[in-house]
Amino acid sequence: MFFCLKNGKVYDIQSKQFSSMKKNSIMPIKDPKVIEFLNTQLTNELTAINQYYLHARTLRHWGVTLLGKKEYEESIEEMRHADWLIERILYLGGLPNVQRYNQILVGQDVEEILKCDLKLEEKAIGDLREGIAYCESVRDFVSRDLLLKILVNEEEHEDFLDRQFDLIKQVGIQRYIQLNSAPAPDQE
């Protein structure tokens, strides 16, 4: 593990020696477990991008265009999260694992799509909370703040999904689908 000092010297904790640094180079403080937590969340985000995109296109195909638009926007938001995580992992000297995915849960109807999305959000929120606690414990406040920023967005999406289930209970699934469908375009 290395610490970067202002005078251009690097102190290696293991060897207990100072060494010179190239000008303008940065040796970030690395913790493999922080990188592991960031990669776990990257896996969640990459899975969500694909799941939400598939759901967006499926809903649009079914004519449930307003909910499909929301799913598409969530997919793009997850892409932003993945971008932030990749940047942080690279900065810490880690390798972003963009080949690992969780199971993509595919809903067969509107209500099942919402249930699949909620399950994905619940997993991400649990992983984020665990990662935030660890980053706090090792005083990596930048990684902690990044995970916290993502957590806020994931909790907002979880709240949105919970409200959709409440709405379905109140008005029924058919009315809910009708509320989330746009009128067909004029063919004239």
From TrEMBL:
Assigned GO CC terms: cytosol
InterPro entries: Bacterioferritin, Ferritin-like, Ferritin-like_diiron, Ferritin-like_SF, Ferritin_DPS_dom
Cofactor list: heme b
Occurrences of domain Ferritin-like diiron (ranges): 28-172
Pfam families: Ferritin
NCBIfam families given in the database record: bfr
Any one GO molecular function term: ferroxidase activity
Keywords of this entry: Heme, Iron, Iron storage, Metal-binding
Family note: Belongs to the bacterioferritin family.
Gene Ontology biological-process annotations: intracellular iron ion homeostasis; iron ion transport
Name recorded for this polypeptide: Bacterioferritin
